[in-house]
UniProtKB/TrEMBL annotation, chain A:
Gene Ontology CC, one term: plasma membrane
Signal peptide stretch: none
A GO molecular function held by the record: sodium:proton antiporter activity
Sodium/hydrogen exchanger regulatory region domain sequence ranges: 523-581
The family this protein is said to belong to: Belongs to the monovalent cation:proton antiporter 1 (CPA1) transporter (TC 2.A.36) family.
A Pfam family assignment: Na_H_Exchanger
Membrane topology, record value: Multi-pass membrane protein
InterPro entries found in the cross-reference section: Cation/H_exchanger_CPA1 (IPR018422), Cation/H_exchanger_TM (IPR006153), NaH_exchanger (IPR004709), NHE_CaM-bd (IPR032103)
Regions that span the bilayer: 12-29, 35-56, 68-85, 97-120, 132-153, 165-185, 206-227, 247-268, 289-312, 318-347, 359-380, 386-409
Species, as recorded: Pelodiscus sinensis
GO biological process, one term: sodium ion import across plasma membrane
Name under which the protein is recorded: Sodium/hydrogen exchanger
Amino acid sequence: MDYQHVQVPFEITLWIMLASLAKIAFHLYNKLPSVVPESCLLIFVGLIMGGIIYGLNDKSPPVMDSDIFFLYLLPPIVLDAGYFMPSRPFFENIGTILLYAVVGTIWNVFGIGFSLYGICQVKSFHLQDISLLHNLLFGSLIAAVDPVAVLSVFEEIHVNEKLHILVFGESLLNDAVSVVLYKLFRSFCEMSTIKTVDVFAGIGKFFVVGIGGVLVGLLFGMIAAFTTRFTKNIRVIEPLFVFLYSYLSYLTAEMFHLSGIVAIIACAMGMKRYVEANISLKSHTTIKYFLKMWSSVSDTLIFIFLGVSTIGDNHEWSWSYICFTIIFCLIWRALGVLVLTFFVNRLHVNTVTSKDQFIIAYGGLRGAICFSLVFLLPEFPRKKLFIAATTVVILFTVFVQGMTIRPLVDLLDVKRKRESAPTVGEQIHIRFLDHLLAGIEDISGHWGQYYWKDKLEYFNSKYLQKFLLREYDQPKSSIVLLYEKLERKHAIELVEAGQLIHEPSHTSLLVFVDSHRSTVVVKESDSMNPDVLENIQKILSRNLYRIRRTVPAYNRHNLPGESGTAEQAKEILILRHRSLR
Amino acid sequence: MGSRASTLLRDEEIEEIKKETGFSHSQITRLYSRFTSLDKGENGTLREDQVNFRGFMRTLAHFRPIEDNEKSKDQNGPEPLNSRSNKLHFAFRLYDLDKDDKISRDELLQVLRMMVGVNISDEQLGSIADRTIQEADQDGDSAISFTEFVKVLEKVDVEQKMSIRFLH
């Protein structure tokens, strides 16, 4: 037997296998996932595994190193979130999201760092050897919030879209901010003296890193979109392009010391629209599934590491430091959300209510990023204390906050999302109102979000689409696409129900299919018999409400819209038909 | 007179507009300067349609966001211009070109034609219009009345969609 030869891949595979089996068991009990977040389960598995390893070897289990995390484990998680980010709500709320992510994180970092430094000054705690810089470093890694675990709770109770996108967007961007600050402070740690010039250079670097990341990401995104224009004959490797270009953008950004996270997000969001129009349906599905799979695996591995490392000699305990860390995390997050929301509400028509604020503040769970960053700290005397503190904070937030947020949300009765998706009429009217508002804003000299949206749309349709889309001859607005989809669905369902009516006195039923294929067109106009109309309206109203949401909710462990295999089959049929053109 | 002095806003006018539309003093003066910059001909009106400043303000008043302190205030007085019902009425009137209080298929087609772009055939557009009317129409007259229109949009947050925050 040659175990040494295969040891590393074998062990990794075993770990992943174990976690996946645990997930199966977890989902067997229907009630369990709604009460306990998946992260809890993963940590629990890690704890057990750590216990076993410790018991067997009587030494500490292996830990993670910097390269593995930053190069292999982090990109899938971020790419997954970036790819599934719904663009329209994201950009509509981008101001608020940026405010929460950037300003909020900075507020948290400095708040926690300084208050912990204050605590360290108290003589009785024996913590005086922790310098301000170390405290700030700790603050920067502990402030990285990962509320994705909470999003699954939101999904359960259909929280309104705006809150969902706020939390989602914030979680994505504040990872980037956190990592940048962490690297900044770490480089400060290595410098013997810090002059004010260095501080300003740090601030400037912050902006350069962010904007540079966006540019790199967009560049790769456009190249990716352009490449997929020509992949018609080799459908099989289409998903590969998406992954390769995204990963390249991440690596390129990291190479130039720019923010890889921002780059990969910008790449994913930039190319999504064009790539999805160019690639086949199967590639599309493949991409989605692979993204979910990889990000799930990454997340799993990190949480298992967390569980494993909790058992062992990695810790130094200090009641005061740890308790105060937890307290400060909660306080500063709550304060940050309160203050920021106050400013946000002054400037925007769409206000964030106090219930929403509570959810955002309470949903500030810490997750994988915190844990990884603390392990990557350079060796210094108090490192183990930091590891212990981080572990406790993560465990606390994931278990306590994660499990109690659902009952609390129910208690507060957060504004529920609408149960149904918009009908054609609604979509038309909403679009109409958008145009109207853009015009009014033009007239009143107010450049709100609609102005930039229109400008971007104009630029898009005039230049980008011609360049990046394969079939430019037939651009269709989303109203027409939605309409066609509805009509097809309706017709298919009617055919299946055996109710396809041919009498002329009934209302019109149209099924649009490409002219190259044989069309099934049953078209009448004429006056509408009220009884039949009611009947058809009943059928329509019953069926229309089951349409897929326009903004699918994000869940790290599931693809959106997974429920109902029959419905899905119908939709795949319709989409496949469209993609054959 | 062709000079600007004749079109300067007097205080009494500002008060009247304030009462009618609910805008604040500073908002009105700011919008007035906007109006004059749009009013290239300096004759106190915009375009050939003769929209004077009062009309301009009345239209914009529909887009004022609904503030919380107004909601409960004046139950007896006339409905403010920026109430949900009035906002929807404004939108409705844009569809209803012949002002017969109904959106007919043709009127809907015209709006759709403007919104959807040149690559859609008339036939397809006609079916979209048919479907929209079919969805909204409750009294079976193949047209959308104001109440039907309101009903279609009952789930949409119109107060937010049709509001611009006029900066102070």
